[in-house]
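Final report, Chapter 2: Outcomes

The project's central promise was a pipeline that accepts a single protein chain and returns its three-dimensional structure in a standardized token representation, suitable for archiving and comparison. That pipeline is now operational. To close this chapter, we reproduce one record exactly as it appears in the project archive, with the input sequence first and the structure output second.
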Amino acid sequence: MKPLTLATCQVDFDRGMVLRPTGTAPLTTLEVGLLRYLSENAGEDVPRATLQQEVWGHQGPKVGRAVDKTMNRLRK
């Protein structure tokens, strides 16, 4: 997949890395999956339940905080 260019970094999906001017940072498989899904659906509202199903593979309602925790790690 083509790298995703953001304001201060670039996401290399194939290598699972964030490339920044100050260096690189590895991404977990879930972080890559989440970023890939969100970039493929840019501009759309994506419900948490959809992310749990499409990225985590969970079926049915879940009340866990996995999506929130992963998003917080990515923001940092």
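Archive annotation: The mean pLDDT is 90.
This record, like all others produced under the grant, will remain available to the consortium after the project formally closes.
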